[in-house]
Structures are given as C-alpha cells and as structure tokens.
Amino acid sequence: MKKKQIAFVVLLVCLGFSFKKPQKEQEKILPAAPAVEVVELQPSDAGGNLYYMTCAPKTSTDKPTAQLSVKFTLKNKEGKKLVLKNIAYSFLQKGNPVLKTMVLDIDDNTVKNFTIASGAQFSWQNSRDYHDVDNAIFFDSPFPASIQIRLTFEGYSNPVIITRNLKSYTNVTSGGAYGFPGRLSHLKEGEYWYAYGGHGGGGQFYAYDFKVEGWDPKEKKWSNTFPGKDGSKNEHYRAYGKAVIAAADGVVIDFKDGVKENEGNGGGGSGGGNWFKINNGKETLCYYHMQPGTLTTAFLKKGAKVKKGDKLGLLGNSGNSSEPHGHVHAITDPDADGDGQWVPMNFSDIYIIDKNELSTGPDPAAAWAKVEKKGLPFLQDRRCMIWPSATKPCLYPGGWAEIGRHAIPENQYQQEITKIWNCGYYPVWVDAYDVSGKTFFNTIFRYNSGNFDVVVRHDMTKESYQQEYNTWVKQKDYRLLQLDNYNDNGKLKFAAIFIKKPNQPAAQPAYHAQSPEEHQQLFEMYTGQGFVPVNVSVVSIGGKKYYSAFYEKRNVGGSVLKSSLSQQEYQEMFEDMKQKKWEQAYINAYHHDGQTRFSVIWYQNSGYDAYTATRKSDKDGYQEKYEASLEAGYLTRCVTGYEEGGKHWFAGHWSK
Length: 656
Hints:
Elements: H1 3-18, E1 36-42, E2 50-55, E3 65-68, E4 71-76, E5 82-93, E6 96-101, E7 114-116, E8 121-125, E9 137-140, E10 146-153, E11 160-168, E12 191-194, E13 208-216, E14 221-223, E15 243-245, E16 250-256, E17 274-279, E18 283-290, E19 305-306, E20 311-314, E21 326-332, E22 342-343, E23 347-354, E24 369-374, E25 384-387, E26 403-409, H2 410-421, E27 425-435, E28 438-447, E29 453-460, H3 462-475, E30 479-488, E31 491-500, E32 510-514, H4 516-528, E33 532-541, E34 544-552, E35 559-565, H5 567-579, E36 583-592, E37 595-603, E38 611-617, H6 619-631, E39 635-644, E40 647-655
Parallel strand pairs: 2-11
Antiparallel strand pairs: 1-4, 2-3, 3-9, 4-8, 5-6, 5-7, 5-10, 10-11, 12-13, 12-25, 13-14, 13-21, 15-20, 16-17, 16-19, 17-18, 18-21, 21-22, 23-24, 23-25, 26-28, 27-28, 29-31, 30-31, 32-34, 33-34, 35-37, 36-37, 38-40, 39-40
C-alpha cells in the first residue's frame, strides 16, 4: 500500500474513534419534581396558614414591619435518595417579586447540599445566628398574602414548591398580647429597658433578651454598665438585680433554682439557668437567667398561680449567658407540658424607639411609637429602647417612691418642678434657703397615684400668700401640705404646697409672718386645744425673726418644738431624743445674728419603724446619703439647706 493510502486509513480510524459516544451514559434530567410529602410546617394554624410576627414601627413616623421563620419537615417518597441543593423563599413585596436564596447551613458555609434517604424525613428552618439577619425573612408594609418555599433537588428540572397563605400571629392570652417582663418604676433616671426582635434561631427565633441601658452624661453615650465600670462584675450592669415580672396570668408548670451565676461578661453556663415556665392554658412563657435564690418562694411549686405583674425573681446571669440579662419567649402549649410550637410574642401598652433617635440622651418628646399587639422590630446593634408603660415616655419613670432635688437655683426651680410634675409626681416638701445672697430650693416629690389635686406656689409676698391661702384653703377646701418662709435677697418670701384629698384634716390652724412673741402665744393656744405643730418655718431678715406655721390634730403621743437651736444644741438634742425614741418630724434652718439656727419638731410616736439622718452634709455628701437611704427603703421626710463659709450644707431625715 502506498504511503498516502496508509495515511488516509489512519485518519479514518482516528475520525471513527472521535465520533463514538462516551461509554458512561450521561445523567438524565427528569422533567418533574421529586415525590415528597410535606409532613409539617411551623408555626401555622389548623388551616395551614403560616404565622409571621408583625413588628412595631421603630418610630412613630415609620410603618410596621414583619418577620418570618418557617420550619418545614419533608418525607422522601421516592424509591431512592434525594439530594436537596437549593432552598429559596419567594413572595410579592409591594407588587414586586422577591426571591431569597437561603444559606443551607448558617453554621457551616461549606455545606452545599443535603442528602435525604429514601423514606426518611428531613427538617429545615430559615434561621439565623444570634443577632444576625442570615436566613430570616423580613416584610415591609403592606405585607404579602402568601409565600412559596422552593426546593430544588439534584437531577430534577422542576423544584418542589410549597405555597401557603400568611397570617399575622395573635397570642392566645388576655388582650392578644403580653406585658413587658420588666417594671418601669425599676428604671433609674436616664435609663430605658431595651430588647429587639432578633434574638436567635430555632425555637428561639421570636425570643427576646432584655437588658437596661442608661445615658452617661459625662461620656455622652448610652451604656448597659454604670459609669466607670468595665463589665467584669455582675454588679457593673444596670439590669442586674432588677425584678423580672410576669407578663401575664398563669400557672407554674416547671421551674429551676440553685444554678450558679456566671460573673460579668465572662460567659459560661448552659441552658436557661434559673427559670420559670408559666402556662396560661394555651401558651407557655419561659423566663430564663435569673439570680439563684431570688425566685419568688410562693411560686416554687407546680400549680402555683401567678398574676400579671407579680415578681418572679431578680434578673441575673445564670445559664448560657454572656452578661446579666433577662430572657423570655412563648410557645403554644395547650396541654401544659412545657413543650410546643414556637410562636411570636407580642406586646401591648409599651412605647419603643430606635436608639439612634436618642443620640443626645433621653428625650420623651422624640418619635416614640406606641406598641399594641405587636412584636419588637429587628434593628441592627439591638437599638430598640423600651418604655414599659401605656402612658407616653417621660424624663422620670412613674411609680418611683420619690424624687428628690436639692440646691436648685431659683431661676431653674420652676422648670425643674414642671419636668417632674409632668411625669405624674407632686411635691410634698419645699425648702428655700440662700447662699451668698442667691436663693436655692430643696424639694421632695411623691408619685401621685391617688390623683390628688395639688397647687404649688413660690416667690409669694406676705400679701400674695394670703390671697392664695384664701383662695385654696378657705374657698376651695384645700389643706396646707408644706409652708416655708425664706429670705430672698433681703425680701420676705413664701413657698407653699396646697393639697385636696380624701380624709384630709378637718381644720388646720395656720399663720404666717408672725413675730416670736405672736408665734409663742398662738403656739400655746393651739397646742392647748389638742393640736400639734406640723410645720414651723423661721426666717431672719434685717435681724428680725418671722414665724409661719400650721397645726393638725394627730395621734403622735406627744410633740416637742424647738425653734432656735444652735448647731451644737441641735446635735445634743437630737441624740437625747434618739435615746428617748422620739423621732424628728420637721426641720428648718435659717441664719440669725450671724449663726445658723434650726427649728425642729419631734414626735413621740411618728408611725415609722426606723429612721436615718444627716445633720450636716455638703452637696455631694447629702446626695450620697440620699441615694443610700432610698436604696435601703427609706423615704425623705424633711430636708433643709443653709450656708456656712460660703458653701451649701444640708440636714435631712429619712424613715420607713
């Protein structure tokens, strides 16, 4: 054969081999979706509607949002294994299609598919890690009416599509929502509770961690720790030790106590720590991470009945906890066994706001949003501040035992009074004094839970005070609660509090701007008629003393008034009366002939069990004593200010 012919044959052979099909047959793509059974979808109702949580708007000028997490369970009905390689959720948002492709495993991004054996079940939830978005679904208003879950399997051209209608969840409890598990009255000045709708995944997708943040005026920032604290100790945290309260009526179905706490931000522990599970007949609320030994004793038994607002324990740092905080979440639990479908937890009668709206500190006039039957919104960095009250936010939380202010300059006094007054408090004490010719005020407020009618006046002359007295006491049947005369740059002025309430005294003999001699005559007359002195204010102007006082019939056993005590005499008499178990009921300081003098009233039976006092403290010392006394459960009964050496000094008395 010639060389050309041989080459041609070789070429044909090569071409023949190149046209052959691969020995391994190519994989076939089946046109239909695989046979799978939808075993369960959670959370959903009996009609198959999927529940989402409607979230309150982050401010009053924003619209509500919503979030959704669905756990589906499938059963492989094919006679072979299935490989799930893609999960996507699709819905219409404002008429536009939205398709969110999910991360198959938020804890392991290397996972590219799931293998489901023939006849086996497979469950998956669009979840998230703590405080992240991940696979969570968010809706803007208006919310979509339905959603599709699209599951793509290897070897199949068509996805499995699960279509369900959507429905906003309403809690099965009185009013369709819960109260907040922390008290308004337990917040300090400049503090708010905070939590948000972005806790974690799984059965705690709709759970809440709640803490407290406070404004640091020196650093001009919000912090969940007290100024100067680094978070290494539990006591550094503002939330630590505040009461956790029941968000609804219910019955205790389980509890745990005695779990040791973690320390500060060190983390550690596991589970819910010290906790309660409380069932209302349809749903169970789970409260976690409380301090050991603080769970309310009466509730440490299954079947114990709990009322909304009851104290459950103190917020702590037990269990799986990175720092002191509270935790609450809801499950459907009609059989009250502590196990059920996780559902949204909605709130009512609270206000919330995005913390970014409070960049310069607490602001009750900001765009706070009222929450009714809604969950908390998801805000990055957990920015949701909470005012747990049906009434609008205020600078001072309602329900405090008292609010005290001392050394208020006269030109700021009315403004300060108004701020506290507007938060539902009324003054029970006012004391005016002067330092270097300038007038200052001390005042004590109580929460006006009885809705008493109260009138407050200051900067009154002798004549204008008489007019006010005639109007409120003689014409409108009010009573004096406090009366103070003071030296306002050489002028005689008066401050007074008038009040009208049930069971008030039938009569109050009173007088003002009397000389020592006139006062003594009136004192003897009224005490001789069975009255006791309640208030005897003395002021010296131009070397002349003026007395203003009122009296009531009180069952105090006996009373002693000393209206011209020196500092030393006051000290000695205080100790003497203490030995006799008499209690100071009133004090008023003034200057006369270059010396500080005190007008003091003692009662034999004051009606209180214990007291504490300071007879001479500077501004800072008095504030420390004031805060420590209130922390120990005492209330201020009287406080007076005076000048010595060009400085402010204070004497005060607290009892309980």
